[in-house]
Amino acid sequence: MKKREALWFYIMVSPWIFGFLVFTLGPMVYSAYLSLTEWDLFNAPKFVGLQNYIDLFTKDRIFWKTVGNTFYYGLTSMVLGMICALLIANLLNKPLPGMRVYRTLLYIPATVPVVASSLLFIRLLAPDAGLVNQFLALFGIDGPPWLLSTVWVKPALILMSLWGVGGGVTLLVAGMKGIPMEFYEAAAIDGANSRQQFWYITLPMLSPVIFFNLVMGLIGSLQTFTEVYIVTGGGPNNASKMIVPYLFDNAFRWYKMGYASAIAWVLFFIALIFTTLVFRSSSLWVYYESEVKK
Amino acid sequence: MNLNIRLPEKITTYAILTALSALLGTPLLYVFSIALASDQTTYLAKFTLLPQEFHFENFIRIFQMDLNFARFFLNSLTLVFFAIIGQLVSSSMVAYGFARLRAPGKNILFMILLSTMMIPGEVTMIPSFMLFRYLGWINTLLPLIVPNFFTNAFNVFLLRQFIARIPTELDEAAQIDGLGYFGIYYRIILPMIRPALIAIAINTFTWNWGWFMGPLIYINDFDKAPLALGLQILSATSSSAQVPPWNLVMVGSLLLTLPMLVTYFFGQKYMDEFGVIGGSAAIK
After folding, report:
1. Per-domain boundaries in chain B
2. Is the CB of B123 less than 8 angstroms away from the CB of A208?
3. Are A115 and B228 an interchain contact pair (Cβ–Cβ within 8 Å)?
4. In a domain? residue A10
5. Which positions 125-184 of B are in contact with A (Cβ < 8 Å)?
6. Inter-chain CB proximity A9 and B101 less than 8 Å
7. Cα–chain-centroid distance for residue B166?
8. Residue B40: which of B214, B181, B243, B249 has the closest Cα?
9. What is the spatial distance between Cα A107 and Cα A77, in angstroms, rounded to a whole number?
10. A22 occurs within a structural domain
11. Centroid of chain to Cα A190
């Protein structure tokens, strides 16, 4: 009986095992090998040892610029996005009529696929004819040239990511609905005002959801590609070029497959270091309900 | 959350939310305004926030271009349909295995599964490209569809959590009634996890419908492109005047967004449920 159960286990999980070997493990091993070669896709790969990594770390200033840009964009948009989402969710969680309607309205931009929102923001942020600068002009503000400026291009992309803040709001509101009413009632009896209730009940109770979003957001923002490819192409002067678009250029534009593989591995380790840090630190600030129950 | 909200607080809440909705909604109004603009206005890029022209024929013209927009749509539907089927079948099977069946090596395999969630897809991107090139699948939808039949670790993980909440007494009762392991999966578990399956279908749809990088890598011919890539091609294909046909691009953007909106309205209920479970399950 037990053998049969084990057999069925392996039958049921076989799609994953196959997929893992063929689409994950195999490619990872091959990619590690490729990162030690020079390969243009047409001639045989030439083994060059650690040369790609040495070039990456010592010679390639554009690569380090892309790393810096990715962090600038990723961290800023994530932190701002989380703060905005928390504030909005806290408003939407009030027991007032019409909150569902607002929630839906605020979510709509998050349903717009990145390709479409990217194209839209090209128009919105056009220096003279764009809506944003026309709006700023109403207040006598001479709007920046956004996508054409090395200084403003990253804030422009961050602005674009904030347009989709409704996605995070929905998750947080759902999380807030799960917090037992009694907590708030008890706090109200003790004389806690709304702000205190937010800081001492809502925020700690939500910390697992926030944590989850941070981890996923972190990995996601490291992989930013489409916005950059469509809106800026990485320009001006590489001011908005990020790691994955640079990897893409190396692999599919310049056919430097070995070098691109090395970039992919550096990206992998950056992601690994950051998720480890977040997980390690989580016990300091994430509160799990079950910890109390045990 | 004060249960008795005083009037000033009520007013500020509504005021802030109304202002925010207006702020986030304005770009959408702009999309409509551009989509309804004439070619002349488009050429001059003199768009206004409120539509001043109403060229509804743009919504028909987009299907009459040299670029076959109806074809893009069809390609996207094909991609999304098979991606959903693949994810539902494979992820539910694998999740059942991990949630219910005992076997040597299971825990190690599950740890591996969890750790694959942290691997950025870019690490496997180039070798996968080689593999699909070797198979002769470049310029087809196959590289985008087929991996879905071999699960996605995230979906497996969420479904496993969902299955773990179903009382095992149900399985035992079914076993006494003579159902085998596959029967339990098919007759007991699958019907019970239907809300989670719908949520996964919605997620898979959302992800694949707007997916850009995969199609960009694998598709070369315009008539093989899914909608998201097709739209980018349209915006990059300059008209004779070297200006993207912004009015048609925005029509295309609306067409790309509409299915997402519809999915949101009908799927909200399932996604809400899924969101909480995803949020709290992933870290336990």
Report:
1. 7-60, 67-237+253-281
2. no
3. yes
4. no
5. 125-131, 147, 149-151, 153, 156, 180-182
6. yes
7. 27
8. B243
9. 17
10. no
11. 40
Instruction: State the amino acid at position B121 in one-letter form.
Output: G
Question: Rounded to two decimals, what is the model's pTM?
Answer: 0.90
For chain A, what's the residue count?
Answer: 294
- B19 CB-near residues (< 8 Å, 6+ apart): none
What is the residue type of A121? F
End-to-end CA distance of chain B: 27
- Write down the pLDDT at residue A83: 93
The pair of three-digit structure tokens given for residue B14, joined into one six-digit string: 């509504």
* Domain count across chain A: 1
Can you list the residues of chain A whose pLDDT is less than 50?
292-294
Residues 6+ apart with CB under 8 A from A150: A236, A237, A239
ipTM of the complex model: 0.90
For A227, the domain range is 61-293
Q: A229-260: per-residue pLDDT in tens?
A: 999 988 899 999 999 999 999 999 999 999 99
Provide the number of CB pairs (under 8 Å) joining chain A to chain B.
292
Instruction: List the CATH number of the domain containing A90.
Output: 1.10.3720.10
CB-nearest partner of A244 from B113, B122, B280:
B122
The nearest CA of chain B is from the CA of A90 a distance in Å of 9
CA distance B94 to B71: 34
Q: In which residue ranges of chain B is pLDDT below 70?
A: 1-4, 237-242, 272-284
Nearest to A51 by CA among A266, A262, A267, A245: A262
Give pLDDT, residue A193: 86
CATH: 1.10.1060.10, 1.10.3720.10, 1.10.10.10, 2.40.50.140. Which one for B67-237+253-281? 1.10.3720.10
Residues 70-109 of A with CB under 8 A from B: 88, 91-96, 98, 102, 104-109
A163 touches chain B (CB under 8 A): yes
